[in-house]
Protein: N-acetyltransferase domain-containing protein
Amino acid sequence: MESKDEKLNFVVGDLSKYSEMLMKMIIYEYSQEAPITKAIGAKPDEIKDLCLEACKESINSPVSILAFLGQKCVGWVLNYIKTEIQECSENPNLTFTNDFTEKIANKGYDNSKANKISVIGDEITRNFSYFIPNCKKLFVLHILFVKPDFEGKGIATKLTEKSIELAKENQCDYIMSVPSNIKSARIFTKFGFELVREIPLNAFQENGQPFVKDLGDGNKSTRLMFLKIF
Structure:
């Protein structure tokens, strides 16, 4: 399905004909602009498998959106809907431990940089359902990305707005997102997302030392945010 908004053309769902282009963008462009990846210094080949695994659900989802200017893809938001949600009564903030040495070693990727990125994502979303009791249908706003040359044109805001519309159309109870980019976090806040969990990056340690200190954009933490729809 395609819709036009000013000079932008949005493609929603059925991204099969764009899959090869999109995967290349994820691995070679998004991964190198993502704050956590940049802070850890991971190269595309080091996180290729991580990217492919992390995006396998959202890249084939009918609620993901691409943004085009002419024939050029300038950004996207990868989303998916989750219905198998295990209820949790344990507040993850009360069981946080900052030693991730063993988890990094056992994560399973072939290099420590990919393992470090993965354990950060695992921890910030651990027991997420504690914050959304009775949620039966969750819209996951997984990755929001706009090419650096096209930032500041409101594209990320429009992609977020369209994602919220899709969540409502699909009668989802909540939208969940984990913005590592401080600009994305500010956009979500403007739309009413609530910050429910925030972990300072220097709390993630390996062998007693923080393995991420600053994301380079002034952001010093990772966040979990929700927007209640119904």
